[in-house]
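Quick start: read one record
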Amino acid sequence: MRVAKVRITPVAVPDVPLLNTKGVHGAYFLRSIIEVETDNGLVGVSETYGQVRCLSGLQNAADALTGLDPFNLNDLARRVSEALPDAGGINGPTMLADHKVEDVAYGAFEIACLDLQGRALGRPVCDLIGGAVRDEVGFAGYLFYKFAKPSDQPGEDPFGEVMTPDALVEEAEAFVGQHGFRSLKLKGGVLEPELEIQTMLKLRERFPDHALRIDPMGAWRVETAAGVCEALGGVLEYLEDPVRGMGAMAKLAARTDMPLATNLVVVEFEQVFEAHRKGAVQIVLSDHHYWRGATGAVTLGRMCAAAGMGVSMHSNTHLGISLAAMLHVAAATPNLSHDCDTHCMWTGHDIVEGKGIEFKEGRLAVPRGPGLGVSLNHEALQKLHTLYLENAVKDRDDTEEIRRYIPDYVRKVPRW
């Protein structure tokens, strides 16, 4: 079995104006859908980011996969590395962290190869990356402050404007009622810290038994973050990226017993060692998209276990293929110690066959079919590809987008 053809289809998916410390989501989010076809007719699928640099990297590396044995992941790594010399990062200047094009491209193609392996063997991907230690994976309800969607943007607008603590609690009530989440995560760094503290206290009052976390994406200075830790002591399971940079995280960690988590200051394997040495974080968020695929994400889990760190899982806005891959990685990561993030309850669209995502008490079953256990809905894929072709925006810039709402908005991290 050898790779004969690679198809990469960019798609645009209607999004919701969800806020974060650097701006707001645009009218669409972008993804790349990968199909790797072999000479015996099997097709493995994958999904990753859709911004310009990532899409270009995928396209530049695709031809190098011709003739690849999908079981030889070392050869895959070599081919991708040689096809993308000095490729740089995938993210634009307004993002808060960057990921190597090479790592993201390898991760995307590795997932497709693992899907092929599983299809060829009749085994699920989790069996190929160490074996499942759990049959179900818990997820956190991902809460956002948000603008009301402008009338000229496509898609539904759940909840309308959510810009107060009380409105945010109502959003949480809806998600918990619909999906049964037992954990809740707030994307913070949007309102004044005092209001975000108030939001978390109101969530604790309304959901006394839920695990709570907040992620301000580096929006706070160390002094501000220390005050938040004091105010929310005993309320949060962890505080994610409250300050910007490894040094600031280490300074904060020295002042608080609050567990600190990150997906912004530990994004490369060598940074795990630095974070451990400096005592900067206690929890690292995994993500197969930029931690070099499923095997890289599981390796990260092993490294964190050796360092005495916990593991959670990060989410970018995604579709069902990424969700399936997340489930397999989570199933095969023994020390995944927290419910995973996911944006899927905000999406409302998908490109996989089936009746849609159904949480049970905030949990999803790990697919047990061959490979990833999902199949492409080609009609849905083509519709979202058409949206991509019709959409003038081909990159993500949350800061430029928020200026449609607040013309004089100035990006400032940290802000408080």
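The longest strand covers residues 3-14.
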